[in-house]
Specification:
The structure holds two protein chains of two kinds. Helix content of chain A is about 40%, strand content about 15%. By secondary structure, chain A is of the alpha/beta class. In chain A, the strands form three sheets. Chain A has a seven-stranded mixed beta sheet with strand order 2-8-7-6-5-3-4, with helices on both faces. A four-stranded antiparallel beta sheet of chain A has the order 9-10-13-12. Chain A has a two-stranded parallel ribbon with strand order 1-11. The longest helix of chain A has 25 residues. Chain B is an alpha+beta fold. Chain B has one domain: Sufe protein. Chain: A. A three-stranded antiparallel beta sheet of chain B has the order 1-2-3. The longest helix of chain B has 19 residues. The mean pLDDT of chain B is about 90. Classes of the chains: A alpha/beta, B alpha+beta.
């Protein structure tokens, strides 16, 4: 059976050019980049090259690129690291603004910080899964120090207005500073703290402009394995001057922000994967993937009754199509498709070991029963027309069979 | 998370799936909000126990309808196979462990699904007994 992979949002197959870039660093150039001798120098050259590749992609300085074990660590470091630094600078009651549709790698650190007395606002989203900019503006408070909003949601693919939010923060920071400078010395007080902006760009890197200057971003997380690179490696971009403290202590690697021996093959692979995302390649992939995604959407909508498309295709990356097959439980669809060799994912609670279905779909105002019926198809650069046609053919009888079993 | 071959077999070709129109008892468990609903239909017949010569209520036919995950469907299928021909008292004594064993195991997070099937069965039996 020819297997069909439609779960690129979970992870991607490695590009063979990425693998070639990694190979020397497993055995031949095995040195520890922190060693001063020749073996170490060979290895640090690989790390430095990747750092430049990432810096080029993000339009930042190589020194602002921190290699981590993945986007989860990058998110944790960004949020907890910034709050830790600000608290040690004497900020008593910091306020974070984030969204209700973030990845758990952002939500969980925020919840933990709440227990430690940090204030957190979770912004609502509209029915397309997009953060409301006006609600964001209203939620800014005197003590707001950090805003963390994802670039693209992993479940429905919705694109967040990152640049708009970044601009608002930038203006606010400029105004605060100006007011402070213009205030009379007697009432001026301490220099105001700017608001820092963190973006989890994990799901965006393949498709969208991640220029940190253009988007007014102070911290940005990304991962290797979502961009046809290796697992176990990621990046946190930290704009020079941003207050941040390490969470992991040790050998003082990465400006002492992330101790631990460098994952040299992983870092080299991530660098190459990012390098492959040049403007032309991105444009070509986006066009091809969007075409296949639209074919999948119309194929499903035309051949299966009572289906709701949860992805607002006009406002999403080209890879995603999330549907609710009403009256059918998502995990049973997933298993049925898997038995046919087709891999997808679901927002049903039954697939996650929790009681509640996807927090993202619920935040979009989708009813729990429809969220339990959700299936996410995510396409990638190696998806073919044949695969989409096969999926559109295989799915209708599966839905029909499962509906016939239901008491509803 | 891995399903056993037996679970997948029951899921792909469930036994006793459907409706008994003139059922003697019906039991339903679960709700839409939690994503799983199971409905059990029973046809019950009085029959003499050959050893004790006493009249007993025996499950002559059983059907199920399930909206739920693969495990919920497999549990419904296995459970209906297991209780067919049992007396109501015997069926009441069926445990989740026995169903899990019959299916060559279930992923731990899926065990609650089997409880819903049992709950629907027990509701149907209790309804019949009144």
């Amino acid at each position: 059976m020819n297997k069909i992979y439609l779960d690129y949002s979970a992870t991607t197959p490695m590009d063979k050019r990425v693998l070639s870039a990694m190979m020397p660093y497993f055995k031949d150039k095995f040195g520890n980049p922190s060693s001063i001798h020749g073996f170490g120098q060979e290895a640090i050259a690989g790390v430095d090259k990747a750092r430049e590749q990432v810096a080029e992609f993000l339009n930042c300085d190589p020194g602002e690129v921190i290699f981590t074990s993945g986007a989860t660590e990058a998110d944790n470091l960004a949020i907890k690291g910034v709050i830790k630094a600000l608290k040690s600078d004497g900020v008593k009651k910091p306020h974070i603004i984030t969204s209700s549709i973030e990845h758990p790698a952002v939500l969980e650190p925020c919840r933990e910080l709440e227990k430690e007395g940090v204030e957190v606002t979770y912004l609502p989203v509209n029915s397309s899964g997009v953060v409301d900019v006006d609600k964001f503006k209203e939620s800014i408070k005197e003590n707001t120090v950090l805003v963390s909003v994802m670039y693209v949601n992993s479940e429905v693919g919705s694109i967040q207005p990152i640049r708009e939010i970044g601009k608002i923060i930038n203006k606010l920071n400029e105004r605060k500073l100006k007011d402070w400078k213009n205030a009379k010395p007697a009432i001026r007080g301490d220099k105001p703290l700017p608001v820092y902006f963190h973006v989890d760009a994990t799901q965006a890197v393949n498709f969208l402009n991640c220029d940190v200057r253009r988007n007014y971003v102070d911290l940005l997380s990304m991962s290797g394995h979502k961009i046809y690179g290796p697992k176990g490696v990621g990046v946190l971009y930290v704009k020079s001057g941003t207050p941040i403290k390490p969470l992991q202590l040790g050998g003082r690697q990465e400006n002492n922000l992330r101790s631990g021996t460098y994952n040299v093959p992983g870092i080299a692979g991530l660098g190459r994967a990012v390098e492959l995302l040049d403007e032309k390649a991105v444009e070509n992939n986006n066009r091809k993937i969007a075409g296949l995604r639209d074919m999948l959407i119309s194929g499903i909508m035309e051949n299966i009754p009572d289906v709701v498309l949860n992805t607002d295709a006009k406002n999403a990356v080209p890879s995603h199509a999330n549907f609710s097959f009403l009256g059918v439980e998502g995990e049973s669809i997933l298993i049925s498709l898997d038995l046919e060799g087709i891999a997808v994912s679901t927002g049903s609670a039954c697939a996650s070991g929790k009681l509640d279905p996807s927090h993202v779909l619920l935040a979009m105002g989708i009813k729990p029963e429809a969220a339990h019926s959700s299936v996410r198809f995510s396409l990638g650069k190696t998806t073919t027309e044949r695969e989409i046609k096969k999926t559109v053919k295989v799915l209708p009888p599966i839905i029909k069979k499962l509906r016939e079993m239901s008491p509803m | 998370m891995l399903y056993s071959k037996k679970v997948l077999k029951h899921f792909q070709n469930p036994h006793n799936q459907g409706v008994i129109k003139d059922a003697d008892a019906v039991g339903e468990a679960g709700n839409l909000k939690c994503g799983d609903i199971m409905k059990i239909y029973l046809k019950i017949k009085k029959q003499e126990n050959k050893k004790t010569k006493k009249q007993e209520n025996v499950i002559k036919d059983i059907k199920f309808e399930t909206l739920g995950c693969a495990a919920a469907i497999a549990v419904s299928s296995a459970l209906t196979d297991m209780v067919k021909g049992m007396t109501l008292d015997e069926a009441m004594g069926l445990t989740k462990d026995k169903i899990v064993e019959e299916l060559d195991g279930l992923p731990p997070i899926k065990i609650h699904c089997s409880m819903l099937g049992l709950e629907a069965l027990r509701k149907a039996i209790s309804e019949y007994k009144g």
